[in-house]
Amino acid sequence: MKTLQKNRHNFINVIATGAFMLAASVSFAQNKEKQSSPSDATLIRPYHISISQEAITDLRNRVNATRWPEKETVTDQAQGVKLDQIQNLVKYWGTDYDWHKTEDKLNALPQFVTNIDGLDIQFIHIKSKQKNALPLIITHGWPGSFFELLKVIGPLTDPTAYGGKAEDAFDLVIPSMPGYGFSEKPKGTGWGPEKIGNAWDVLMKRLGYKHYVSQGGDWGSVIADAMARQAPEGLLGIHVNMPATVPADIAKALKNGDSAPAGLSVKEKAAFNSLTKLYTKGGGYAGMMVTRPQTLGYGLTDSPVGLASFFLDKFNDWTYSGGNAEKSLTKDEMLDDISLYWLTNTANSSAQLYWENNNNNFNALEQKTADIKIPVAITVFPGEIYQAPKSWAEKAYKNLSYYNEVSKGGHFASWEEPQIFTVELRDAFRGLRGKH
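== Alpha/beta fold hydrolase ==
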Protein backbone atom coordinates (compact mmCIF):
# COMPACT_ATOMS: atom_id res chain seq x y z
CA MET A 1 0.00 0.00 0.00
CA LYS A 2 2.86 2.36 0.82
CA THR A 3 4.42 1.61 -2.56
CA LEU A 4 1.12 2.32 -4.27
CA GLN A 5 0.77 5.59 -2.41
CA LYS A 6 4.33 6.59 -3.27
CA ASN A 7 3.74 5.79 -6.94
CA ARG A 8 0.55 7.86 -6.87
CA HIS A 9 2.45 10.72 -5.27
CA ASN A 10 5.12 10.60 -7.97
CA PHE A 11 2.57 10.22 -10.74
CA ILE A 12 0.57 13.25 -9.62
CA ASN A 13 3.74 15.32 -9.50
CA VAL A 14 4.48 14.17 -13.02
CA ILE A 15 1.11 14.81 -14.63
CA ALA A 16 0.52 18.32 -13.25
CA THR A 17 3.32 19.68 -14.81
CA GLY A 18 9.95 7.77 -43.56
CA ALA A 19 9.47 9.24 -46.95
CA PHE A 20 7.11 11.82 -45.59
CA MET A 21 9.41 12.82 -42.78
CA LEU A 22 12.29 13.21 -45.22
CA ALA A 23 10.18 15.32 -47.58
CA ALA A 24 8.83 17.52 -44.81
CA SER A 25 12.24 17.92 -43.20
CA VAL A 26 13.93 18.83 -46.48
CA SER A 27 11.21 21.36 -47.32
CA PHE A 28 11.38 22.91 -43.87
CA ALA A 29 15.19 22.96 -43.79
CA GLN A 30 15.42 24.52 -47.24
CA ASN A 31 12.91 27.17 -46.22
CA LYS A 32 14.97 28.03 -43.15
CA GLU A 33 18.26 28.02 -45.08
CA LYS A 34 16.94 30.51 -47.62
CA GLN A 35 15.80 32.89 -44.91
CA SER A 36 18.81 32.98 -42.61
CA SER A 37 22.56 32.97 -42.43
CA PRO A 38 24.96 33.13 -39.49
CA SER A 39 25.76 36.79 -40.14
CA ASP A 40 22.16 37.97 -39.80
CA ALA A 41 20.87 35.47 -37.23
CA THR A 42 19.82 38.10 -34.69
CA LEU A 43 18.00 40.23 -37.24
CA ILE A 44 14.23 40.11 -37.71
CA ARG A 45 13.73 38.25 -40.99
CA PRO A 46 10.51 37.65 -42.96
CA TYR A 47 9.20 34.09 -42.83
CA HIS A 48 7.14 32.14 -45.38
CA ILE A 49 5.64 28.69 -44.82
CA SER A 50 6.08 26.18 -47.64
CA ILE A 51 5.23 22.53 -47.04
CA SER A 52 5.97 20.24 -49.99
CA GLN A 53 3.15 18.53 -51.86
CA GLU A 54 5.05 15.26 -51.38
CA ALA A 55 4.72 15.61 -47.60
CA ILE A 56 1.02 16.40 -47.82
CA THR A 57 0.38 13.45 -50.17
CA ASP A 58 2.31 11.14 -47.88
CA LEU A 59 0.26 12.30 -44.90
CA ARG A 60 -2.97 11.52 -46.73
CA ASN A 61 -1.67 8.11 -47.80
CA ARG A 62 -0.68 7.26 -44.23
CA VAL A 63 -4.05 8.40 -42.90
CA ASN A 64 -5.95 6.31 -45.44
CA ALA A 65 -3.82 3.23 -44.71
CA THR A 66 -4.50 3.27 -40.96
CA ARG A 67 -4.75 -0.07 -39.18
CA TRP A 68 -7.52 0.36 -36.63
CA PRO A 69 -7.93 -1.26 -33.21
CA GLU A 70 -11.17 -2.81 -32.09
CA LYS A 71 -14.00 -0.72 -30.72
CA GLU A 72 -13.97 0.32 -27.06
CA THR A 73 -15.82 -1.97 -24.67
CA VAL A 74 -17.66 0.80 -22.81
CA THR A 75 -20.37 3.23 -23.88
CA ASP A 76 -18.61 6.39 -22.73
CA GLN A 77 -15.06 7.80 -23.05
CA ALA A 78 -13.71 6.09 -19.94
CA GLN A 79 -11.22 4.18 -22.12
CA GLY A 80 -10.33 7.20 -24.25
CA VAL A 81 -11.39 8.55 -27.64
CA LYS A 82 -14.23 6.49 -29.09
CA LEU A 83 -13.54 4.65 -32.34
CA ASP A 84 -16.49 6.18 -34.22
CA GLN A 85 -15.38 9.73 -33.40
CA ILE A 86 -11.75 9.38 -34.43
CA GLN A 87 -12.68 7.46 -37.59
CA ASN A 88 -15.09 10.23 -38.57
CA LEU A 89 -12.41 12.89 -38.11
CA VAL A 90 -9.75 10.85 -39.89
CA LYS A 91 -12.02 10.09 -42.86
CA TYR A 92 -12.35 13.83 -43.42
CA TRP A 93 -8.60 14.31 -42.93
CA GLY A 94 -7.81 11.72 -45.59
CA THR A 95 -10.27 13.04 -48.18
CA ASP A 96 -11.50 16.64 -47.96
CA TYR A 97 -9.15 18.47 -45.58
CA ASP A 98 -6.96 21.00 -47.43
CA TRP A 99 -3.69 22.11 -45.82
CA HIS A 100 -2.99 24.49 -48.73
CA LYS A 101 -5.92 26.71 -47.68
CA THR A 102 -4.53 26.86 -44.18
CA GLU A 103 -1.02 27.62 -45.39
CA ASP A 104 -2.33 30.46 -47.56
CA LYS A 105 -4.19 31.89 -44.56
CA LEU A 106 -1.02 31.80 -42.48
CA ASN A 107 1.14 33.31 -45.19
CA ALA A 108 -1.26 36.25 -45.42
CA LEU A 109 -0.13 37.19 -41.91
CA PRO A 110 3.12 39.05 -41.16
CA GLN A 111 5.45 36.26 -40.04
CA PHE A 112 9.06 36.56 -39.02
CA VAL A 113 11.97 34.63 -37.55
CA THR A 114 14.88 35.68 -35.36
CA ASN A 115 17.62 33.80 -33.55
CA ILE A 116 17.62 33.89 -29.75
CA ASP A 117 20.13 31.90 -27.70
CA GLY A 118 21.05 29.82 -30.73
CA LEU A 119 17.52 28.93 -31.84
CA ASP A 120 15.45 30.39 -34.65
CA ILE A 121 12.14 31.55 -33.18
CA GLN A 122 9.24 31.99 -35.61
CA PHE A 123 6.52 34.46 -34.71
CA ILE A 124 3.57 36.45 -36.01
CA HIS A 125 3.76 40.21 -35.45
CA ILE A 126 0.77 42.46 -36.12
CA LYS A 127 1.04 46.16 -35.40
CA SER A 128 -2.17 48.06 -34.74
CA LYS A 129 -3.02 51.12 -36.78
CA GLN A 130 -4.08 52.80 -33.56
CA LYS A 131 -1.70 55.16 -31.78
CA ASN A 132 -0.40 54.08 -28.38
CA ALA A 133 -1.39 50.44 -28.86
CA LEU A 134 -0.20 48.33 -25.93
CA PRO A 135 2.41 45.72 -26.98
CA LEU A 136 1.28 42.21 -26.03
CA ILE A 137 3.06 38.87 -26.38
CA ILE A 138 0.78 35.80 -26.19
CA THR A 139 2.08 32.27 -25.69
CA HIS A 140 0.17 29.16 -26.79
CA GLY A 141 0.17 25.79 -25.02
CA TRP A 142 0.11 22.04 -25.75
CA PRO A 143 -1.48 20.45 -27.71
CA GLY A 144 -2.21 23.88 -29.13
CA SER A 145 -0.21 26.26 -31.28
CA PHE A 146 -0.53 29.71 -32.81
CA PHE A 147 -3.75 28.39 -34.36
CA GLU A 148 -5.36 28.93 -30.94
CA LEU A 149 -4.82 32.66 -31.33
CA LEU A 150 -5.69 33.50 -34.93
CA LYS A 151 -9.30 34.45 -34.14
CA VAL A 152 -8.27 37.18 -31.69
CA ILE A 153 -5.76 38.93 -33.94
CA GLY A 154 -8.36 41.21 -35.50
CA PRO A 155 -10.25 42.10 -32.31
CA LEU A 156 -7.07 42.81 -30.35
CA THR A 157 -5.25 44.84 -32.99
CA ASP A 158 -8.24 46.56 -34.63
CA PRO A 159 -10.76 47.00 -31.78
CA THR A 160 -12.95 49.60 -33.48
CA ALA A 161 -13.87 47.01 -36.10
CA TYR A 162 -14.95 44.54 -33.38
CA GLY A 163 -17.01 46.58 -30.96
CA GLY A 164 -14.14 48.06 -28.97
CA LYS A 165 -12.58 51.47 -28.61
CA ALA A 166 -9.41 52.78 -30.22
CA GLU A 167 -7.75 52.92 -26.83
CA ASP A 168 -8.28 49.13 -26.46
CA ALA A 169 -5.73 48.37 -29.21
CA PHE A 170 -2.76 46.04 -28.88
CA ASP A 171 0.33 45.42 -30.96
CA LEU A 172 0.40 41.63 -31.04
CA VAL A 173 3.35 39.21 -30.99
CA ILE A 174 2.56 35.48 -31.22
CA PRO A 175 5.66 33.26 -31.07
CA SER A 176 5.87 29.50 -31.42
CA MET A 177 7.69 27.98 -28.47
CA PRO A 178 11.00 26.20 -29.16
CA GLY A 179 10.25 22.74 -30.52
CA TYR A 180 6.75 23.78 -31.59
CA GLY A 181 5.44 24.79 -35.01
CA PHE A 182 8.03 26.48 -37.18
CA SER A 183 10.36 27.48 -34.37
CA GLU A 184 13.61 25.56 -34.22
CA LYS A 185 13.92 22.48 -32.02
CA PRO A 186 16.30 22.65 -29.05
CA LYS A 187 19.52 20.74 -29.71
CA GLY A 188 20.10 20.08 -26.03
CA THR A 189 18.48 20.42 -22.64
CA GLY A 190 17.63 23.60 -20.78
CA TRP A 191 14.76 25.11 -22.75
CA GLY A 192 12.22 25.22 -19.94
CA PRO A 193 9.74 27.98 -18.99
CA GLU A 194 12.37 30.23 -17.40
CA LYS A 195 14.57 30.26 -20.49
CA ILE A 196 11.60 30.71 -22.82
CA GLY A 197 10.38 33.62 -20.68
CA ASN A 198 13.77 35.26 -20.92
CA ALA A 199 13.79 34.71 -24.70
CA TRP A 200 10.38 36.39 -25.01
CA ASP A 201 11.75 39.48 -23.28
CA VAL A 202 14.67 39.51 -25.71
CA LEU A 203 12.19 39.21 -28.58
CA MET A 204 10.02 42.09 -27.42
CA LYS A 205 13.00 44.37 -26.95
CA ARG A 206 14.47 43.31 -30.28
CA LEU A 207 11.18 44.43 -31.82
CA GLY A 208 11.74 47.84 -30.23
CA TYR A 209 9.25 47.65 -27.37
CA LYS A 210 10.34 49.29 -24.14
CA HIS A 211 7.16 48.33 -22.29
CA TYR A 212 4.77 45.44 -22.87
CA VAL A 213 2.43 42.89 -21.26
CA SER A 214 2.34 39.08 -21.47
CA GLN A 215 -0.52 36.60 -21.69
CA GLY A 216 -0.80 32.83 -21.73
CA GLY A 217 -2.87 29.73 -21.21
CA ASP A 218 -1.59 26.21 -20.52
CA TRP A 219 2.21 26.40 -21.04
CA GLY A 220 1.65 30.04 -21.88
CA SER A 221 0.45 30.60 -18.31
CA VAL A 222 3.54 28.88 -16.92
CA ILE A 223 5.78 31.03 -19.12
CA ALA A 224 3.90 34.22 -18.24
CA ASP A 225 4.37 33.38 -14.56
CA ALA A 226 8.08 32.81 -15.17
CA MET A 227 8.35 36.19 -16.88
CA ALA A 228 6.52 37.84 -13.98
CA ARG A 229 8.95 36.28 -11.50
CA GLN A 230 11.88 37.49 -13.59
CA ALA A 231 10.25 40.92 -13.86
CA PRO A 232 12.43 42.20 -16.71
CA GLU A 233 12.49 45.94 -17.15
CA GLY A 234 9.50 46.97 -19.22
CA LEU A 235 7.15 44.09 -18.39
CA LEU A 236 4.10 45.87 -16.97
CA GLY A 237 1.94 42.90 -16.04
CA ILE A 238 0.59 39.50 -17.07
CA HIS A 239 -2.77 37.81 -17.71
CA VAL A 240 -3.24 34.05 -17.37
CA ASN A 241 -6.19 31.74 -17.86
CA MET A 242 -4.63 28.68 -16.20
CA PRO A 243 -3.21 30.16 -12.99
CA ALA A 244 -1.11 28.42 -10.34
CA THR A 245 -3.27 29.01 -7.27
CA VAL A 246 -3.45 25.67 -5.42
CA PRO A 247 -2.33 26.21 -1.80
CA ALA A 248 0.36 23.98 -0.29
CA ASP A 249 -2.01 22.07 2.03
CA ILE A 250 -4.45 21.37 -0.78
CA ALA A 251 -1.62 20.28 -3.06
CA LYS A 252 -0.39 17.89 -0.37
CA ALA A 253 -3.85 16.35 0.04
CA LEU A 254 -4.12 15.85 -3.71
CA LYS A 255 -0.68 14.21 -3.86
CA ASN A 256 -1.56 11.81 -1.06
CA GLY A 257 -4.94 10.91 -2.50
CA ASP A 258 -6.72 12.27 0.56
CA SER A 259 -10.29 13.46 0.70
CA ALA A 260 -10.96 17.16 0.44
CA PRO A 261 -9.94 18.95 3.65
CA ALA A 262 -12.70 20.21 5.89
CA GLY A 263 -13.72 23.85 5.66
CA LEU A 264 -13.45 24.33 1.92
CA SER A 265 -15.96 26.64 0.28
CA VAL A 266 -18.21 25.36 -2.49
CA LYS A 267 -15.87 26.70 -5.19
CA GLU A 268 -12.76 25.43 -3.43
CA LYS A 269 -14.31 21.96 -3.12
CA ALA A 270 -15.23 22.01 -6.81
CA ALA A 271 -11.65 22.93 -7.71
CA PHE A 272 -10.33 20.12 -5.51
CA ASN A 273 -12.66 17.61 -7.18
CA SER A 274 -11.67 18.74 -10.68
CA LEU A 275 -7.99 18.29 -9.88
CA THR A 276 -8.65 14.89 -8.30
CA LYS A 277 -10.34 13.81 -11.53
CA LEU A 278 -7.36 15.01 -13.58
CA TYR A 279 -4.83 13.25 -11.37
CA THR A 280 -6.69 9.93 -11.19
CA LYS A 281 -8.28 9.62 -14.63
CA GLY A 282 -6.99 12.26 -17.03
CA GLY A 283 -3.26 12.65 -16.60
CA GLY A 284 -1.65 9.66 -18.32
CA TYR A 285 -0.65 11.80 -21.31
CA ALA A 286 1.52 14.04 -19.12
CA GLY A 287 2.94 11.14 -17.16
CA MET A 288 4.40 9.80 -20.39
CA MET A 289 5.70 13.15 -21.62
CA VAL A 290 7.34 14.06 -18.33
CA THR A 291 9.04 10.71 -17.88
CA ARG A 292 9.50 9.21 -21.36
CA PRO A 293 8.93 11.78 -24.13
CA GLN A 294 11.35 10.04 -26.48
CA THR A 295 9.60 6.68 -26.16
CA LEU A 296 6.22 8.28 -26.75
CA GLY A 297 7.60 10.27 -29.65
CA TYR A 298 8.24 7.24 -31.85
CA GLY A 299 4.56 6.35 -32.05
CA LEU A 300 3.31 9.93 -32.41
CA THR A 301 5.93 10.64 -35.09
CA ASP A 302 5.19 7.51 -37.12
CA SER A 303 1.38 7.44 -36.98
CA PRO A 304 -0.71 10.50 -37.88
CA VAL A 305 -3.82 8.84 -36.46
CA GLY A 306 -1.95 8.06 -33.26
CA LEU A 307 -1.10 11.75 -33.04
CA ALA A 308 -4.65 12.81 -33.88
CA SER A 309 -6.23 10.56 -31.25
CA PHE A 310 -3.73 11.71 -28.61
CA PHE A 311 -4.73 15.32 -29.28
CA LEU A 312 -8.45 14.67 -29.72
CA ASP A 313 -8.54 13.10 -26.27
CA LYS A 314 -7.46 16.46 -24.81
CA PHE A 315 -9.71 18.50 -27.11
CA ASN A 316 -12.66 16.47 -25.84
CA ASP A 317 -11.65 16.77 -22.20
CA TRP A 318 -10.60 20.40 -22.12
CA THR A 319 -13.07 22.25 -24.32
CA TYR A 320 -16.32 23.56 -22.90
CA SER A 321 -18.20 20.97 -24.91
CA GLY A 322 -19.44 18.24 -22.61
CA GLY A 323 -16.86 15.81 -23.97
CA ASN A 324 -17.40 16.39 -27.71
CA ALA A 325 -14.81 18.85 -29.01
CA GLU A 326 -16.71 19.40 -32.25
CA LYS A 327 -19.25 21.44 -30.29
CA SER A 328 -16.47 23.97 -29.63
CA LEU A 329 -14.06 23.56 -32.56
CA THR A 330 -14.61 22.59 -36.19
CA LYS A 331 -12.94 19.59 -37.81
CA ASP A 332 -10.79 21.98 -39.85
CA GLU A 333 -9.67 23.87 -36.76
CA MET A 334 -8.59 20.71 -34.98
CA LEU A 335 -6.94 19.28 -38.08
CA ASP A 336 -5.06 22.53 -38.73
CA ASP A 337 -3.40 22.12 -35.36
CA ILE A 338 -2.82 18.36 -35.64
CA SER A 339 -1.45 18.73 -39.18
CA LEU A 340 0.93 21.46 -38.02
CA TYR A 341 2.50 19.08 -35.49
CA TRP A 342 2.69 16.33 -38.12
CA LEU A 343 4.08 18.40 -40.98
CA THR A 344 6.73 20.02 -38.78
CA ASN A 345 7.55 16.69 -37.05
CA THR A 346 7.23 18.26 -33.61
CA ALA A 347 5.28 15.67 -31.63
CA ASN A 348 8.49 14.60 -29.90
CA SER A 349 10.19 17.98 -29.50
CA SER A 350 7.02 19.55 -28.08
CA ALA A 351 6.65 16.77 -25.51
CA GLN A 352 10.18 17.42 -24.28
CA LEU A 353 8.99 20.64 -22.63
CA TYR A 354 7.15 18.47 -20.08
CA TRP A 355 10.38 16.63 -19.33
CA GLU A 356 12.22 19.93 -18.95
CA ASN A 357 9.72 21.41 -16.53
CA ASN A 358 8.63 18.47 -14.36
CA ASN A 359 6.73 20.72 -11.93
CA ASN A 360 3.17 20.84 -10.68
CA ASN A 361 1.96 23.76 -12.76
CA PHE A 362 -1.12 24.35 -10.60
CA ASN A 363 0.76 24.49 -7.29
CA ALA A 364 1.38 28.06 -6.11
CA LEU A 365 4.37 27.01 -4.00
CA GLU A 366 6.12 25.10 -6.79
CA GLN A 367 5.46 27.89 -9.27
CA LYS A 368 6.80 30.45 -6.78
CA THR A 369 3.91 32.81 -7.28
CA ALA A 370 4.85 34.60 -4.05
CA ASP A 371 7.93 35.90 -5.88
CA ILE A 372 5.75 37.77 -8.39
CA LYS A 373 5.58 41.47 -7.65
CA ILE A 374 4.12 42.89 -10.87
CA PRO A 375 0.34 43.01 -11.54
CA VAL A 376 -1.35 39.70 -12.35
CA ALA A 377 -4.75 39.34 -14.02
CA ILE A 378 -6.75 36.09 -14.09
CA THR A 379 -9.79 34.99 -16.07
CA VAL A 380 -11.50 31.75 -15.05
CA PHE A 381 -13.24 29.83 -17.83
CA PRO A 382 -15.85 27.21 -16.83
CA GLY A 383 -14.35 24.46 -19.02
CA GLU A 384 -10.79 24.91 -17.73
CA ILE A 385 -9.04 21.92 -16.15
CA TYR A 386 -9.91 23.47 -12.80
CA GLN A 387 -11.68 26.70 -11.94
CA ALA A 388 -9.33 28.65 -9.70
CA PRO A 389 -11.31 30.13 -6.77
CA LYS A 390 -10.74 33.80 -6.05
CA SER A 391 -9.80 32.92 -2.46
CA TRP A 392 -6.88 30.82 -3.72
CA ALA A 393 -5.92 33.36 -6.39
CA GLU A 394 -5.66 36.19 -3.88
CA LYS A 395 -3.34 34.13 -1.66
CA ALA A 396 -1.18 32.92 -4.54
CA TYR A 397 -0.75 36.23 -6.38
CA LYS A 398 -0.16 39.03 -3.88
CA ASN A 399 -0.54 41.68 -6.57
CA LEU A 400 -3.73 40.34 -8.14
CA SER A 401 -5.00 43.26 -10.17
CA TYR A 402 -7.94 41.62 -11.95
CA TYR A 403 -10.04 38.46 -11.46
CA ASN A 404 -13.15 37.46 -13.37
CA GLU A 405 -15.21 34.32 -13.95
CA VAL A 406 -16.86 34.08 -17.37
CA SER A 407 -19.79 32.00 -18.53
CA LYS A 408 -18.40 30.10 -21.54
CA GLY A 409 -15.13 28.65 -22.80
CA GLY A 410 -12.59 26.10 -21.74
CA HIS A 411 -8.88 25.42 -21.67
CA PHE A 412 -8.43 26.70 -25.24
CA ALA A 413 -10.05 29.99 -24.32
CA SER A 414 -9.03 32.22 -27.22
CA TRP A 415 -9.79 29.45 -29.72
CA GLU A 416 -13.20 28.59 -28.30
CA GLU A 417 -14.49 32.01 -27.25
CA PRO A 418 -12.46 34.72 -29.01
CA GLN A 419 -14.92 37.50 -28.21
CA ILE A 420 -14.97 36.77 -24.48
CA PHE A 421 -11.21 36.34 -24.46
CA THR A 422 -10.73 39.68 -26.22
CA VAL A 423 -12.96 41.56 -23.78
CA GLU A 424 -11.13 39.98 -20.87
CA LEU A 425 -7.74 41.14 -22.11
CA ARG A 426 -9.04 44.65 -22.77
CA ASP A 427 -10.42 44.85 -19.24
CA ALA A 428 -7.49 43.12 -17.57
CA PHE A 429 -4.82 45.40 -19.03
CA ARG A 430 -6.77 48.67 -19.13
CA GLY A 431 -5.22 49.90 -15.90
CA LEU A 432 -1.71 49.45 -17.31
CA ARG A 433 -2.23 51.60 -20.37
CA GLY A 434 -0.55 54.95 -20.28
CA LYS A 435 2.36 53.44 -18.33
CA HIS A 436 4.15 52.50 -21.52
